[in-house]
Design a protein that fits this description.
Blueprint: H1 7-21, H2 25-42, H3 53-58, H4 69-72, H5 77-87, E1 100-102, E2 113-114, E3 117-123, E4 126-129
Antiparallel strand pairs: 1-4, 2-3, 3-4
Helix pairs in contact: 1-2, 1-5, 2-5
Length: about 140
């Protein structure tokens, strides 16, 4: 287990994974989960006071999915199982060390940096960004 979490927080993680990446399939949702867990682990940059999944998911101005109906409804068994895989340590490139992702629009290119940190890669329509080595030692 990478981080401590409650049953309620596992549900939150499953819901944000669905809300942010349902259209990207299971792998896309797993990568969103990687980013959320990385923010709990990182303790750097704007994530210094993030100590739990709840803190990460509800950090102001971070996940637009928290405002949508996909986030409001209960997660499915499949979504909960995907979330469990993430908190148990599964990682997927390019989200392995990533702290950010965004959707630039259909078929749009990813920016070379995000929050002044380098591009890690793209999966379907999501661009992922990781902190430069030496900035967030807990992630490396």
């Amino acid at each position: 287990m990478l981080i401590n979490y409650s049953t309620k927080e596992l549900d939150l993680l499953a819901r944000i994974m669905r809300a942010e990446a349902l259209g990207e399939g299971n792998l896309g949702m797993l990568m969103v989960g990687n980013v959320v867990v990385n923010r709990v682990i990182a303790n750097c940059l704007t994530f210094k006071n993030i100590r739990s999944l709840t803190d990460a998911i509800y950090q102001p101005n971070q996940f637009s999915g928290t405002k949508g109906s996909l986030f409001q409804s209960s997660p499915t068994t499949l979504e909960k199982n995907l979330a469990k895989r993430i908190v148990n340590g599964e990682y997927y490139h390019p989200a392995t060390h990533s702290l950010w992702f965004y959707f630039p629009g259909n078929n749009a290119s990813c920016k070379s940096t995000w929050y002044d940190q380098p591009y890690a890669g793209k999966y379907k329509n999501h661009c992922f960004y990781r902190p430069r080595q030496g900035i967030c030692e807990q992630l490396y």
